[in-house]
Design goal:
alpha/beta, 11 helices, 6-stranded mixed β-sheet, 2-enoyl-CoA Hydratase, Chain A, domain 1, globular
């Protein structure tokens, strides 16, 4: 697409791109992206990953007019996290997680390598894979009371080894999150520096737009140089060496398999209710 990787071709027009799981709108120097699977709480499936990372971000990288990328979610929540029905269907048919691309490059997603600033506006709930997605993003603005969850680590979620999240929190906080499926509020995330601002939900869009317009005031070459230099500094400190996708993920154990079978036989809602019932929120909250 465009001129990346030495390829020179006809510029891609945004109107020519067709999406099933996201909505995209270009407004001035801002590319607005909405996760658009509200019927399944904007769960990340394989197609959403592809359309977001391999199509929308590639387009933004190639368009010289775009200076900032904004990601939000349609509907009642930002994202429930991984599409566990897709994962379960893979176990039921081929004995491994559904939606997983074995050819996908190991290491961080394209959100980390994208040279242009990315802002996320999140509300109500951020599930595990969505939280991992946010760990690569430059600025996160959250609505008051938003719950950031790693509850999927309790069953069927593996170790979340393929994430930058562990670099954002102290070791004992990370252990609480990943070992018992912990969670925290947006306000707590701000205390740890993961979230830049927490605002009332009815002010979320306005705050995100304000940040986007503020960033647009900086020359694009300066923005890209600054972001890439910061990332190189972190990489030089070994930031990427801790990123181990699916290492000892926990997938495939007998209890894990039984739980995914319940997802297929009884539905996701019943399986989640059974998974979470024994846990005490006052213990798992950071």
């Amino acid at each position: 697409m465009g001129q990346r990787d030495g390829y020179v071709g006809e510029p891609v027009k945004l109107a020519d791109l067709k999406f099933e799981t996201i909505q995209v709108e270009k407004k001035g120097g801002v590319l607005n992206i909405w996760l658009n699977r509200p019927e399944v709480r904007n769960a990340f499936n394989a197609l959403l990953h592809h359309e977001l990372e391999e199509v929308a971000l590639d387009y933004a990288e190639d368009d010289p007019d775009i200076k900032v990328i904004v990601v939000r979610g349609r509907g009642k929540i930002f994202s429930a996290g991984h599409d566990l029905v897709e994962v379960a269907s893979g176990y039921a048919t081929v004995g491994k997680p559904g939606g997983w691309d074995p050819h996908r490059r190991p290491g961080p997603a394209k959100t980390w390598y994208c040279s242009k600033p990315i802002i996320a506006g999140v509300h109500t709930y951020v599930g595990p894979i969505a939280w991992s997605f946010l760990s690569d993003i430059d600025f996160v603005i959250a609505a008051e009371g938003t719950r950031f969850s790693l509850e999927q680590a309790r069953m069927g979620g593996g170790s979340a080894g393929g994430t930058m999240l562990l670099n954002h929190f102290p070791p004992k906080v990370w252990k609480q999150l990943i070992m018992i499926g912990g969670w925290m509020t947006a306000e707590q995330c701000k205390d740890y520096g993961f979230v830049a601002r927490v605002v009332p939900q009815d002010q979320l869009d306005a705050e995100v737009d304000k940040w986007a317009q503020e960033i647009c005031k900086v020359p694009l070459a300066q923005l890209q140089a600054s972001k890439q230099n910061v990332h190189r500094q972190f990489e030089a400190q070994g930031y990427l060496t801790s990123y181990m996708r699916n290492l000892e993920s926990g997938h495939g154990g007998s209890e894990d398999m039984a739980w995914f079978k319940k997802v297929m036989d009884e539905g996701l809602k019943a399986a989640l209710k059974e998974r979470d019932a024994p846990f005490d929120d006052t213990v798992s909250q950071i």
